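Chapter review. Work through the record for Endonuclease/exonuclease/phosphatase domain-containing protein before attempting the end-of-chapter questions.
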Amino acid sequence: MNDNVVQWRFTGFYGHPNWRDRNLSWDGIRNLHNKGDHPWVVLGDFNEILLSSEKEGGNARPNTMMRDFRNCLGECGLEDMGCIRDPFTLRRGDIRERLDRAVCNVKWANKFPRSAVINEEHVHSDHRPLILDTKYFDGNIFNQPRSRMKQFEARWLKEETVEEIVHTAWGKGKIQGIGPSLAERTRAMNVDLHIWDRDILIGPKKRINKLKKELEKLRRGPINAESQARQKEILVTIENLLEQEEIYWLHRGRANWLLHGDQNTSFFHNVATTRKKRNQIKKLLDDNGV
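Structure tokens for Endonuclease/exonuclease/phosphatase domain-containing protein:
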């Protein structure tokens, strides 16, 4: 084994849903702790809170249950990693709790000092999805987006108004006296399509984030027929935008051969991201060897 390689352990965790058997969950963590002293992080739904301030609404959590959870983490040398954004990870009716979290030992915290846990927005589930980003606070300048040549986006074909935009842009080029060349007309139409994308569509990811914020606001507000109808409408729109994003990454990943195969957005994202990293200039060497 390479001496420079440091092993670390990740545990996905789900606490026992029955509070009478919650001690079995803590015994499970203790057993894992005794199996080694590697850098260790545990992430998941613990079905328990650490402090009374991590729950709003409903009956108060018995202090003995929170204390047992805290004692277990203390015995295993695990600390709560905190979170970015809203701390309440479960919303059910008028009850909000922080049941999902990540905890780690000192060795893992020292190995990944720039890490963070991001609590994402609710969509279908009553639990928030959690993202563990080991480089959240890096601020690497090479991670900044680079300008690229503007090209046709396949996701535009999912928009109902795309044909109207194309016809209008093509006709406008004729009125403005743009030459009959197909290339000239196409370039002019491409400019209009990107203006439409920027000003109207603003990209699926931005639209999804905007809709998620509106959905979050509605879910925190009063429960009535109008609110529930709007929530259903938003969920349908988000589904359509997620499909557009999948097309976007399929296009970026040059994976057209899988068009009729497994529709896996994460696969296309990884293909595109890997290619970007491979093509990226990370270091330059000057004449002095620096």
